């Protein structure tokens, strides 16, 4: 963002003009959401504060009863200009009286440490007493690039991101500090290295399609047939043409359309994976962690087909240092599996996922309340706002099956990971509260239908 701002300024855009645009964008959103309800704008010492002075002036000009409270002097040239243009009184933050609406223009991307306790307490008190509150650019106290909270951060109604989303807008816990997120265009083209996961555009099969052309998936099961059966069932309802569940010979648990095969011995499994029509092979859910499971995983790793590795497969891989996985694979670790596989990497969840993908040469879905999808070539997508009801047994198996199914359909691991994660979240939204993993599978066709 800073580079983009500097580039705009170098290209001749007057820096104060950027602040006027930022302040005007914030004022417009406050006006639409809050109308003429009385407003107190809290202005910090930097340009975030400057944005606040601009917004206060413009809202007052629209007849909104606006007061401004400042945290000390304005330290930048632009914010001093904005302050001078505000022709009303400026109260000290420490003694400012409450208001119906609060605008947090204390700190933005320039925050370098947590707020002093008295400042954090004032911000919490004023937003707590308000009926609605807005954060300009970022809630004050969040670390822009990691989403960490450097001090106590209240919850805001609307966060108005300026110019582009920053990682803190999408990564927890910062992403839980506001109810709604709006990104205001201020004429600065920030190259979005990080994308918010968008709803995919899906397509129906072509008239000439048949079960192999739509994508054949194999799922290597193990001891816990329920997990691999869930994954197989999810793959079958993901748009793939056919799914073979290769287990240890346990009785089939899925629908009749799911092909149950027995491949207990590693060489039996290897023989079944030699089918060149296989477009994706999933191993992990219910695989087990004993020597037989390890031997079966070896057969999967050697089969030469695009792989999805989840759960036990990641645990077994984690035993041997940096995992050597075939190119074009997708790994789906949760936090514990990620650290076990890649160690304690520095930086934000985005940085860590990107580094892991680069190291293993595969797409990584770093799961969590905020899931980050990273490709070896540096592309990153973040999915936040997933239903907290997904924290129930088996939803990871369903996601792994979805990834394998979409990989079989698209042949593109990054795209498959994005589509699968979105469909997983959409199925959860449709399943409503207190669902179990099996309920997600029943919602997949509708989740796909709404994106055709
Ligand atoms: N294209 C854009 O995104 C634009 C963004 N604008 C706004 O500018 C801020 C960033 O401004 P900056 O002056 O760099 O930093 P802040 O306003 O966030 O203030 C930091 C300021 O405060 C000092 N400081 C840092 N941490 C603390 C602390 N814990 N306690 C006290 N003081 C602290 C620091 O030394 C700085 O002096 C961005 O968020 C946008 O709102 C432009 O106005 C328009 C274009
Ligand atoms: K702010």
From TrEMBL:
UniProt keywords, alphabetically: ATP-binding, Isomerase, Lyase, Metal-binding, Multifunctional enzyme, NAD, NADP, Nucleotide-binding, Potassium
UniProt xrefs under NCBIfam families: yjeF_cterm (TIGR00196), yjeF_nterm (TIGR00197)
Record field: catalytic activity: (6S)-NADPHX + ADP = AMP + phosphate + NADPH + H(+); (6R)-NADHX = (6S)-NADHX; (6S)-NADHX + ADP = AMP + phosphate + NADH + H(+); (6R)-NADPHX = (6S)-NADPHX
SUPFAM superfamilies named in the record: Ribokinase-like, YjeF N-terminal domain-like
Entry binding sites for (6S)-NADPHX: 47-51, 108-114, 137, 227, 286, 334, 397
Residue ranges occupied by any YjeF N-terminal domain in the UniProt entry: 1-194
Family: Belongs to the NnrD/CARKD family.
Protein name: Bifunctional NAD(P)H-hydrate repair enzyme
Every YjeF C-terminal domain range: 194-451
Function statement: Catalyzes the dehydration of the S-form of NAD(P)HX at the expense of ADP, which is converted to AMP. Together with NAD(P)HX epimerase, which catalyzes the epimerization of the S- and R-forms, the enzyme allows the repair of both epimers of NAD(P)HX, a damaged form of NAD(P)H that is a result of enzymatic or heat-dependent hydration.
Assembly notes: Homotetramer.
Residues binding AMP, per UniProt: 367-371, 396
Cofactor: K(+); Mg(2+)
Annotated binding of K(+), by residue: 48, 104, 140
InterPro entries reported in the protein's UniProt record: Carbohydrate_kinase_pred_CS, CARKD, Nnr, Ribokinase-like, YjeF_N_dom, YjeF_N_dom_sf
Record note on cofactor: Binds 1 potassium ion per subunit.
Biological classification of the source: Bacteria, Pseudomonadati, Pseudomonadota, Alphaproteobacteria, Sphingomonadales
One GO term (biological process): nicotinamide nucleotide metabolic process
EC number(s) recorded for this UniProt protein: 4.2.1.136, 5.1.99.6
Gene Ontology molecular function terms on file: ADP-dependent NAD(P)H-hydrate dehydratase activity; ATP binding; metal ion binding; NAD(P)HX epimerase activity
